[in-house]
Amino acid sequence: MIGIIAKKEWTEIVRESRFRWSAGAVLLLLVVAVVSGVVGTRRAASERAAATQADEREWVSQGARNPHGAAHFGMYAFKPVSPLGVLDRGVETFTGNAIWIEAHYQNPAQFRAADDATSMIRFGELTAATVLQTLVPLLIIVVAFPLFARERESGTLRQLLSIGISPARLAAGKVVGALAALACVVVPAIATGVAALSFTGEIPIARLLTLTLAYAAYFLAITAVAIAVSARASSSRAALVTLLGFWIVTTFVIPRAAADLGERVHPTPTDRQFWAAVNEDTAKGIDGHNPADARGKALEARVLQQYGVSSLDQLPVSFEGIALQEGEEYGNRVFDKHFHALWRGFDGQARLQRIAGLLSPYLAIRDVSMTVARTDVRHHMHFAQSVEQFRRDLQRYLNGDFTQNAGAAGFGYKAGESVWRNAPRFSYEPPALRWSLVPIATSLALLVAWMAGAAWLLFRSVATIRPRATQTETPGIATLSEAA
Amino acid sequence: MNALVRHESRLMLRDRAFIASTLLFAVLAVFAVMNGARWLEQRRNSVALERAQNAQLSATARTEADAIASGSMQPAGATVTPYRVAHRALLEPAPAAALAVARGDLDPFMSRVSMATALHKLFTQWQLSSPLTLLAGRFDLAFLIVYLFPLLIIAVTYNVLSSEREQGTLVMVLSQPVRLRSLLAAKIGVRGAAVLVTAVVVTGAASLFVVDVSARGGWTALAMWLAATVLYGAFWFGLSLWINAAGRSSATNAVALVTLWVALVIVVPVALNVVATTMHPLPSRLALLQSTRAIDNETSRAATKLLDRFYHDHPELVPEADRTHFSRTGYVMRLEQERRLLPETAAFERQLRAQQSAIDRYRFASPAVLTSELLARIAGNDRTRFLAWQDSVRTFVLHWRERFLSDLYLGRPLTPNAARTIPEFRFAEGRIAITHVSESLAGLLVLAMLVAAAGFFALRRYSIA
After folding, report:
1. Which residues contact A329 (CB under 8 A, 6 or more apart)?
2. If B101 and its partner were Cys, which of A474, B138, B350, B353 is the partner (CB 3.0–4.6 Å)?
C-alpha cells in the first residue's frame, strides 16, 4: 500500500516542470560546487606541499648563525588540507593556513583566504555543503508542501480516507515518494562527491558514511516537517508560506543572530587587548634578551648553585642559553593561559550555536558536517596546538645547542648546517573520528531529535487530519511571522 | 483611482499578517542597528588605543631628544631612534560604518610605519577574530536590507491579485468601472508606499543614533543609504508586480518569487565571485611567502656587502662612529627585499584589484550585489576604500623614509626639533565616489522600472476567471 502511494507521489512530482527545473538547478549547483571544491583543494594541497619543501630548504640553508638567530628566522607549519574539505570548507576560509614558528611567540595562523577574497565573500561560498544545507531543504519544501493540502483542496483526500486507508500509511507513502524524488538529486550528487574524493586521494569511508547518515537525518526531518505542515495547513498556499517562513528563519535569521549572541556572551578580544595582556604577563617575568632583571638574578643564583661555581665565567655551559630557555618556559605558561582563554571563548561560541540548533536544524547539520569534514574551529585549534607543541620542542633543541656549545662566545657563537639538519621537524597527525564526534554529540542528538520530533509531528498531524478545509480562508496574507 | 487606493489601504490595514510582518521587520531593524553599533564601538575603542600609542611614542621621543640635546642622556640610551621611531597609520571608521560591517571585520585598520617596516609587510597582521562569527556574518542593517527586506516585500505582495481571483472577488471588482492595470497598480502601490515609508522611517530613525551626522559626509551617507533602500525595495515590488501579472496561482507566485530571491541574493553573488576569481586568479600567497623567506635569507647574508655598496655611492653619509650598524643593515636589507619581491607583490596587487573591478563591472547582474556593494561603500567598509587607504599608507612610508634617511645613515639621534615634527598619517580620503553611487542608484531604478514595465506588459494577457 505504502509502495503504491509512494509511486503515485513520485510520478506526480517528477512530472511537474517546477520540480524538474528546480532539481536540475540544484543538481547543477552541486556538481559545480564539487568540481570547484576539487580544483581548489588540489591547488591548496600542492601549494602547501611546495611551501613545506621550500621552507625546509630555507631552514637547512640558512647558513652559519647563532641558534637563537635561527629561532627568530623560524619555520612555517602549513595546515594540511582535509580531504572532505572538497565537500565542506567550514571555517577554513576564515582561519589561516600557516603558522610561523619563532622564538618567544606563539603566533596565531595567518594567510586567511578571506583576506584575499573579493567583497562577495560575505555572500558565502559555493560548496556542496552550502547547497545541501540551504538549497536542498528549499527543494524539499517546494516538492512536499502540496502533498496533503492539494489532495484536500481537490477533494481526493476525503475519497482516500473513505475507502479506509490509514492516514499513517498515507503519510508514510508520501514521505517515501518525496524522498524518492529527492534521491534523483542527492544520489548523483553523492556519486559525484565520492568520485571527486577519489581524485584527492584516499576516501575516508567512516567519515563519509557519518556525513551521509547525518544529511539523511536532516533531509528526513525537513521532509517530515514539510508534510506535517501540509497535512495541517488550511490550504496549500498557507502550507507553502509557513514552510518558506520556517526555511528563512532557520537558515538565515537564527544563524546570524546566534553568532551575534555568541560574540556578546563570549566576546573575542581584539588583537591589541590580547597582546597587551600577553606582554604584561611576560614583562613581569624574565626576558630572554635581558638576563639582568630580578628573575634573571634568581635564575643566576640557582644555576650557580646547581653547578657549584661562584661566577658565571666558571660555568661549563652558556648561561645565555639557559636564560633563553627559561624565558621560553615562562612564555609557555603565559601563552597557555591566554590562548586557552581565547579558545575557550571560541568553544563557548560554538556551544551556544549548538544549543541554537534546537531552533534550527540547519545549525545542527552545519556543525556536524564541518566537524566531520575536519574544517571546523576545533580541528583548527587542534592543529594550532600541535604546532605549538612542536615550537616548544624546537626552542628547547636550539637553546640546548646554545647552552652546550656556545661557551664564552655567547651570542657570538654560530652553529652550522648540521644543527639545522638535526633539528626536529613538524608533522601533523589529524585526530581520529571519535575525537571529532564527542563534542558534537549535542548536534548529533539534535539532528536525531529533529527527525523524531518531525516524525511525531507528522504522525499527530495525520492522526487528526481533517478531510476538508473546515474554514474558508480569510482574505489576507499569511506571513513569515506565522512561522517565526 | 482615489477610491481604489482608499479601499486597498483599508484592506491592508485590516490585514493583521501585514501589520505583524512589518512590525517584525521594524524590530529586526532596530536589533540590526544595535548590533552594528556594538561592532563600531569596539572598533572606535581600538582606534583610540592606537592613537594613544602614537601620542605616547611622540611624548617619549620628545623627552629623550631633549635629554640628549641637554647632555643628560647618552644617544645610545635612547629607545626612540630614527630607526625605532614609529607611527601607526589608522583607517578611521566612516560616519555610517555601523550600518554595514561588510569587510570591516576582515581587513586590518592599522599599519605600523617605521624605518624597520618593509612595504610588503605593511598589512600582514595577526588576526584573532572568531572564525565562526566571521563565517556567519554580522546581523547588521545591510544584511537586513539585502536579504530580509525582499522577503518582507514578497510576503506582503505575492498574492495581491491571485488571491482575489482564487476567492472569486476579482471578477466582481472588475465589473465596476475599474481597469485591471489600475487595480494592480493600486494594490502594489499602496503596499509599496506603506512598506517603503515604514522602512525609511524606522531605519532612518534608528540610524540617526549611530551615524555620525556631524562628521563630513554624514548626512549625505544617510541620505544615500535611504535612497538605496527605497530603490532596492522598489525593484522587489516591481518584480512581484510582474509575477502577479503572469496570472498563476498564489502558491506558484510564492515559489517563483522565492526562487528569484535565491537566484539573485544567493546564487548570482556566489557565481560572480567564482567568475571574478577565475578570470583573475591570484598567485599563491604561500609561494610569495617562500620567496620572501628566500630573499630574507639571501639578503641577510649579503647585508654587509649591500651596505658597503650604499656607502660607496654615498660617501657623505658614512658615520664617524659605527654604533647603529644594526639599524642600517636592517634598513638596506629591507630595501633590497622590497626591490626583489616587487614583481611578485605587484602581481598580487594587480590581480586583487582586477578581481574587485570585475565585481564592480558585473554588479548590475543582481540588484542584491549592486545594493550590497553600494551599502558597503556608503558605510566605508568596502574593498575600494581599503585599497585607497593602503595606497595612502605606502605613500606615507616613502615620505617617512625621506624624512629619517640621513639621520639613520649618519647614526644621529633624533633632534628635539625632529621629535616634535614626527610625520602624522592623514588619509586624504575623497568623498564617497559619487559616480559609483549614482550609477548604482540609477541601475537600481532602471531595473525596478524594467520589471514593473514587464509586469504591466504581461498584464495585457491576464485572464481574470
Report:
1. none
2. B138
